[in-house]
Structure formats: C-alpha cells, structure tokens
Design a protein that fits this description.
alpha/beta, binds pantoate, globular, 11 helices, 3-stranded antiparallel beta sheet, 281 residues, 6-stranded parallel beta sheet
Length: 281
C-alpha cells in the first residue's frame, strides 16, 4: 500500500494506474475507521481495479469548531486497517492541499442541502459537496462507494454527480450494524455506557414505524410525530423523524417505489443518525 499526502503525488500514481488500464475505485473517509468503512472497502474490491482511499477530516462540514476539534483522529490505526484491507493507495492530505485552489469551482445549488440534517447543521452538506467535488476532480475515479447510513449525503452526492455530468458510477452499500442493531459510526465513541445501551432504540423505533407502514398505515405525518414522541420518551433528544421518497428525499407521492424513514437524535454528546428502507406502493 502506498500513502501520499500531496495532490501531485496522488495524480502521478493515478495516471500510472490509468496508463496500465486500471479502473479507479474510490472510498472517501474522514478516518477513525470502523466496520462500516471496511465494508465499503470490501465492496470496492468486488468492483475491481485499484482501490484508492482518502483520510481527510473536512473542516468545512463542521458547523462548530469544538465538534471539529473533538472529531476522533486515529491515523496510525487507520493506516494499519487499510493495509490489512489491501487498499492500493491512501491519500492523506492537509487542509491546505485540498483547498489550495479557492473559488475555482461553482458548486451546484441543491435545496436538499438545507433540509433534514441540513436544517440542524447549517453548511454541513455544502461542506460535503465542496470536498467531495474537489476529491472527485483530484482522484478522477471511475467508481465511488458510499454507505446508506448517511442516506441524505448519498442522495446529494448522486445528484451532484448527475449535475456535474461526471462519468462516475456511485455504488451504495447497506448500513453496517453492531449485533444489537446500532449503526456503526465514529460518533458512537461519544456515548457513555448507559447511552450505548439505549442507542439501538433509535433503529428499533425506525423499524416500528416501518412495520406500521407495512401494515397499511399511511398517515405519515402522525407516524413522524409518534416517532419523535417515542424517542423522547426513552431518553433521546430527537432532531427529526421523517418519512420520505427513497430516491430523492422529497415528500412522499403515491407512486413512490421506495420509502425511507430517517431520524436524527441526540444521546448525551452524540448526534446519531439512522434510516430504514422499504418498498413504496
Ligand atoms: O461520509 C464521510 O465520511 C464524509 O462526509 C465524506 C464523504 C468523506 C466527506 O468528507
């Protein structure tokens, strides 16, 4: 495995891969790798080609400085995990390397950036769109792999790829979970023992809503309100529970093929997000 920190070194290696006819499969991360990331990398391997992984804590997607400072950074363990996962190339740049060229790209506006998690984390998705676009232009991947855990991010990135007309295939993989249902997340490390015990109730509540919809309940607004109440009752501070179209996260229409139930809720210092999918019609 090779590790580079500059755009120049990265581009040199990528161009060697391309000259040899290799496909580039890219997995962007902010480090502090867990089983969820390793599942993305395993999927990248199935896609074939060279696996390129980035570790970059993107300051632009943090609305609070203390959140950025507190974000877990474990570079030594991350590099070890990537080596064991047979990643070919790791890009681990400084902030100035990624953001050296200011204001060179106009990023497409997307109202979805301001909804759901975007409403509670101002600038969050604009920061993600900016870094992901920059990384896509630097890495020039053929395929990128993202997880369904960050469902809104996934939808926004798929739209971005379309808006920019990029020839990139976006692969998505199912949320990876602990045995008790809690989705893997770097933020789980903020949970104390009691909060960790409670945390799987978020996924459980999403599944309760799913069962009600499968049972024929179509009063989505009442289901969202009930979900909020239930989460608060067991000890969460929910930001939202939302039932949306799984393709574009718009308010549900009757001909929807895919429904997604999403929630974000605080437990102590950890803001947990999760979602479940179910067929529409
Ligand atoms: O999902 C993440 O880890 C980040 O939002 C991403 C896509 C690497 C951009 O910083």
């Amino acid at each position: 495995m090779q590790m580079v920190t500059t755009v120049t070194a990265l581009c040199q290696q990528i161009s060697t891969y391309k000259k040899n006819g290799e496909k580039i499969v890219f997995v962007p991360t902010m480090g502090n790798l867990h089983a969820g990331h390793l599942a993305l990398i395993n999927h990248a391997r199935i896609c074939g080609g060279k696996i390129v992984c980035s570790i970059f804590v993107n300051a632009l997607q943090f609305d609070r400085q203390e959140d950025l400072r507190a974000y877990p950074r474990t570079p030594k363990q991350d590099l070890e995990a990537l080596r064991n996962a047979d990643v070919d190339l790791v890009f681990m740049p400084e902030h100035s390397e990624v953001y050296a060229q200011q204001n060179r790209v106009k990023f497409p506006e997307n109202p979805l950036n301001q909804q759901l998690c975007g409403k509670f984390r101002p600038g969050f998705f604009d920061g993600i769109v900016e870094v992901v676009t920059r990384l896509f232009y630097i890495v020039t991947p053929d395929v990128v792999v993202f997880g369904e855990k960050d469902y809104q991010q996934l939808v926004i990135i798929k739209q971005l790829v379309q808006d920019l007309g990029l020839l990139i295939r976006v692969e998505q993989i199912a949320t990876q979970r602990e045995a008790d249902g809690l989705a893997f997340s770097s933020r789980n490390s903020y949970l104390d023992k009691a909060e960790r015990k409670l945390a799987p109730r978020l996924y459980a509540e999403l599944n309760n809503i799913k069962k009600r919809i499968e049972g024929g309940d179509r009063d989505f607004s009442a289901l969202e309100k009930r979900g909020m109440k239930q989460l608060a009752k067991v000890g969460f501070r929910p930001d939202y529970v939302a039932i949306r179209d799984g393709q574009d996260l718009k308010v549900l229409r009757y001909d929807t093929d895919l429904i997604v139930i999403l929630a974000a809720a605080w437990l102590g210092n950890a803001r947990l997000i999760d979602n479940v999918l179910l067929p529409g019609a």
